[in-house]
Design a protein that fits this description.
Layout (H helix, E strand, L loop, with lengths): L2 H53 L13 E5 L10 E9 L4 E14 L2 E12 L3 H33 L1 H12 L16 H50 L5 H31 L8 E3 H11 L1 H6 L3 E6 L4 E3 L2 H17 L6 E6 L3 E7 L27 H11 L3 E7 L2 E7 L3
Parallel strand pairs: 6-8
Antiparallel strand pairs: 1-4, 2-3, 3-4, 5-7, 8-9, 9-11, 10-11
Helix pairs in contact: 1-2, 4-5, 5-9, 6-8, 8-9
């Protein structure tokens, strides 16, 4: 639900609550006010009769007729301190409705005589039909106001939130490789001004950091590969000279470590680039063809390790994928299956239009299987592995929104890539 609709819903609920509560308060207040007004008028009538008796002690109070009714009380009668107010609901046969009979009695001593002055008034009670009619009118008014509130609040909130929506669109279009600044809408709203200032500052800093990281990665790759290649060449020259067996073994170990260091350097640089890799509209590639080509590359290594390869590859499986990244995925998975295998073991590959599965014989991993997709996590610490291969594969598949799973069962390592979600 959009922000403007949330505002509209909140305002509509507020209007409904206010009108409903206001009607209830108005109903009871109206009824109470009517009764209170009648009581005040009756008190005024009583006081008027009392003032008349005070001015003229011989005034014929029977002239008051029934309202107010003036009675002289016996001298022995105890006069209450407060006036007496009485309400009683009775049925009136003439009007065929309930009426409220209100009596107000004042007890006074005038010229040493005790009087009771009582006034009576009848108030017609609001009937249910009349109340229902009022309720229907208020209900229609409420519905009209709610609809009007939703329309007005939606239009007004969209107008007020226009700079916010503009900022959202700019965030969606934001690209670290784009050298242009974010085009944000001018606004007089303080909060949106602060948001725009923050977005501009954040985008500029992000682009600077990205450019520095990209420059560092390129420089690191270039500067490290050169001395590594030089050291590797010198070690190979030394290995061709007359050296003892211990020296040759030491040089061979150094050469292997240099190869490992070079592989770590290249893998980390590739991972850093993939963090900011943008998936572009790629042409469909023949994944079956690339898989067969990469298998030919590893064929001699399989023979040296005495590994049997069982292949079940469906022809012409086309995927929307970058060809180089697809080759990296296949190389890493086949390399892992070979490294983490056992002598006289086997590797099985199966490719269909729904998934690609590669499994190999091997020993149980030393870590939980879910941790093997993290960097520098090795299933077998004794293997000559840098522990980046699966992390690299997972990152590439995340770019193309593909899932990968790994499990170990029946002395086999099984990795599956799902092409369909």
């Amino acid at each position: 639900m959009s922000l403007s609709l949330r505002f509209a819903r909140a305002f509509a609920c507020l209007v409904f609550f206010v009108l409903g509560t206001g009607f209830i308060i108005m109903y009871f207040a109206l009824e109470r006010t009517t009764v209170r007004s009648a009581i005040l008028k009756l008190q005024a009538q009583n006081m008027q009769a009392a003032h008349q008796l005070e001015r003229d002690p011989f005034y014929d109070y029977t002239l008051f007729r029934q309202n107010p009714a003036v009675n002289i009380l016996p001298d022995s009668h105890t006069i209450p301190k407060a006036k007496k107010i009485k309400e009683k609901y009775i049925w009136d046969h003439k009007t065929q409705s309930y009426i409220n009979k209100i009596e107000v009695t004042d007890y006074l001593v005038i010229h040493k005589k005790k009087y009771s002055i009582k006034s009576i008034r009848y108030i017609t009670i609001i009937e249910h039909q009349f109340l229902t009619s009022i309720l229907m009118v208020i209900a229609w008014i409420t519905i009209f106001l709610i609809i009007l509130t939703i329309i007005v609040s939606t239009v007004v909130s969209k107008s007020i939130l226009e700079p916010f929506y503009c900022s959202l669109d700019e965030i969606k279009k934001f690209n670290l490789k784009d050298h242009c600044q974010m085009n944000l809408m001018e606004t007089n709203i303080k909060e949106f001004k602060l948001l725009n200032q923050f977005l501009l500052k954040m985008s500029d800093n992000s682009k600077k950091d990205y450019n520095l990281l990209e420059e560092l990665s390129e420089n690191t790759s270039h500067e490290l590969q050169t001395p590594l290649a030089s050291m590797k060449g010198k070690i190979e020259l030394l290995m061709d000279s007359q050296l003892s067996e211990y020296q040759l073994t030491t040089l061979d170990m150094m050469n292997n470590e240099l190869d490992r260091l070079s592989s770590i350097n290249q893998s980390l640089i590739l991972l850093a680039k993939l963090e900011h890799f943008e998936k572009k509209t790629a042409n469909s590639i023949n994944f079956s063809k690339i898989l067969r080509e990469r298998l030919q590359y590893f064929e001699e290594l399989f023979i040296l390790q005495n590994l049997s390869v069982i292949i079940d590859i469906q022809d012409d499986i086309f995927l929307s994928f970058d060809e180089n990244l697809a080759a990296i995925i296949i190389n890493n998975l086949i390399s892992n299956a070979r490294k983490h295998n056992m002598d006289n073991g086997d590797i099985r590959l199966k490719l269909t239009e729904h998934f690609f599965e590669i499994s190999n014989t091997g020993y149980p991993p030393a870590l939980p299987t879910e941790e093997l997709f993290q960097r520098f996590k090795r299933g077998n610490p004794n293997q000559n592995s840098i522990g980046i291969g699966l992390a690299l594969v997972k990152r590439i598949l995340e770019i193309y929104q593909k899932k990968i799973s790994y499990h170990f069962s029946n002395n086999r390592h099984v990795v599956t890539i799902y092409f369909t979600n």
